[in-house]
Amino acid sequence: MVAQTRPGKRDDDDSAALIEIFADMAKTGRAVLPGGMYKVSKPLVIPAGVIEGGDAVFDFREANPGDFPGGICLLVKGGPRMKLPSLQRNLSVGTRMFRFEGPHGLLAGDAFQLSGTVDFAGNGARSYYRKGEMFRVAKILDSTGLRVENGCRDTYTVAGTEIWKRTGDRFTQRCTSLTIIGHDGVDYAALVKNLDRSILSNFKCEGGRLAALYIDDCFQSFGENVRAWQTENGGLDRYGCIIGNSQDVTIRGECYGHFNGFTVGGDNPINGKVGMNRDCHFFGRAGSHPTAGLSGGIFTVTPSIAA
How deeply is 236 buried, as exposed, middle or buried, from its count of CB atoms within 10 A (0-12, 13-18, 19+)? Predict the structure, then answer.
């Protein structure tokens, strides 16, 4: 595949070649992209692994929104979680030792997460929020017991808690820069999902009907020089960058959304999602429309933690 770099309208479509590259990446764990502009008309899925190359731009602006039934231009995705045995005993704040009713099958360094019952609803309006948190295994005690690196920050009952093993899939963005220009008729320019210890540096997302960049269900991940820019008007729920259902995620860069440049939130916690964020930090400049937006003009953001 040759990247399309000539200006103006381009007749060539790089979708099929990119889909093939990322299918190979699913097998090898690595992909190389020559710098340049790529015209894309179909949804793209990048698997866990390392992507490297020059200044690459994926341009979805000439695509047909009807060809994106999932509402996502680019999906960067790890594997699904696996349900673990139930707890043998309730957990209290500070607990580091977990005991399961059956063999957990975990190893030191593995990550898992709890999804607990609702005992508060965020801002009082979202009853579907659930407490939860993510852990990394420090030591295996035996087939049903283990110790985690950090103690619980909340209480959990046996009856009201699900436990799910995370795959530990990791994505590293090593292109000089990777820019996604989404279609304003498609919900999200880019969704990053189900990943741990990932690097999203020099990742730039523009457009999208609801958000330029959505980071969902991620753990211990970081991005430097991230740009998330959404300008589509539509009232509420128009964001530059959203972080949802994640823990220990730090983003540095600039975010703009018609309603709000940067936000954290939860979701309906199906299949063990933690339901709310913990330790999500943004450093940089963020803002929204000066009269229709939540945050007004561009402003400097200090570290933001949602617990």
Answer: exposed
